Amino acid sequence: MRRDVFQAIADPTRREIINMIAQHPLNVNAVAENFEVSRTAIYKHIKMLTECGLVVITQFGRERYCEARLERLAEVADWVEQYRKVWTERLDNLENFLDDLETKKRKPGRKKG
C-alpha cells in the first residue's frame, strides 16, 4: 500500500509526534512516553510517518532517534492553498455584496407621488 503525507497527518497522534520531533530529534522511547497508548502503537505511527517521508530514524548505539523531515508538508500546504484562494475570493465577494446592500439601505428612497 502506498502511503502519502495526507495519511500521515490524518491521525492526531501522528500530528502530535510530528510536533514533538519538529523541535529536535527524540529517541523512540521518549516519544512513546508522551502518550497513553502502547509503545507498539506508537512504533506503528512512527513507521507510517517514516513510510510517508516525514520522519527519519537514525541509530546511535542502541538508541533510535526520530528526526522530522517537514519538507513533505509542502505538498499539504500547496493543496490547501488552492482552497484558501477560492474561499478568500468567495468571502471577498460576500463582503462586497453586503457593502452594496448596506449602501442601498442608507440611501433615502424616492417617494412615489
TrEMBL record:
Domain of life per record: Bacteria
SUPFAM superfamilies reported in the protein's UniProt record: Winged helix' DNA-binding domain
SMART domains: HTH_ARSR (SM00418)
Leader sequence residues: none
InterPro entries reported for this sequence: ArsR-like_HTH, HTH_ArsR_DNA-bd_dom, WH-like_DNA-bd_sf, WH_DNA-bd_sf
Every HTH arsR-type domain range: 1-88
GO molecular function, one term: DNA-binding transcription factor activity
PANTHER family (alphabetical): SLL0088 PROTEIN, TRANSCRIPTIONAL REGULATORY PROTEIN
Protein name in UniProt: Transcriptional regulator
Species of origin: Niastella populi
